[in-house]
Give the backbone structure.
Amino acid sequence: MKPGRLFKSLTLTLVMAAIPMQFAAAAEQPKVALVMKSLANEFFRTMEDGAKAHQKQHASQYTLVANGIKDETDTANQIRIVEQMIVEHANAIVLAPADSKALVPVVKKAVDAGILVVNIDNRLDPATLKSKGLNVPFVGPDNRKGARLVGDYLAKQLKAGDKVGILEGVSTTTNAQQRTAGFQDAMKAKGATVVGVQSGDWEIDKGNTVASAMLREHPDMKALLCGNDNMALGAVAAIKTAGMAGKVKVVGYDNIAAIKPMLADGRVLGTVDQYAAKQAVFGIELALKALKNKTPQSALPAVYETPITLVTR
């Protein structure tokens, strides 16, 4: 064989030999699945952007599959997404559950399949987890504390006996329940009267509908406390339509970009920043650390509390 042909043959052999090694290296890289709630919600789009930026910065450490559902109540589809991640042999699932109880059975299925599961944003119901013999770490803020923070800020501009309404998120979610409890704590401390707690399903349109009904029923209402900024946007629109601009104060939760102009001009009094871009990253980093250290699901602490900040004008 001529020297040139021999060199080409040896080069081809080396390249072909390297291919399986490259695939082996890729196979060793853990796959992390981020399963979120509604991507129609700016909060979760920001969360997804933060996760993708983190993966890009740590591309040699893990691969990321990010997915979300159509709307906040599409629980069945979120369950299907988790099931698909089990089929695709994800090493870890970082989950923001649409329902605190309904997602527990599929989480058990994932854990039984050897997949590490980390819970973010909305906490899975502790009693339901316990009934399934599951330990799933919750990485996220103290929602009751956050709602109390913005509720207390609102309370400074209210008088005892003032009527207020609460727009709750999806009522089967722990974070919605905890935020309502925090709002109730603040209003009770002030002596304000909560005339209604109704679900706006975390969404602008539903929040608008619920707020409009509350304002019609209680035209002397002084404030609306909203479990997220999407519903606060709906509430602001309802107040304007009712001709009550400047008469009803609004607070929200999440500090999404769309709320900032309303904070600036006073249509929204305050909100809570729970750092959407970092929410998934906190969970991903915990999952990667556990995978690296081979820490079993059962040995992970139950709660990792993340920061919150009151945001006002």
Summary: The longest helix spans residues 3-28.
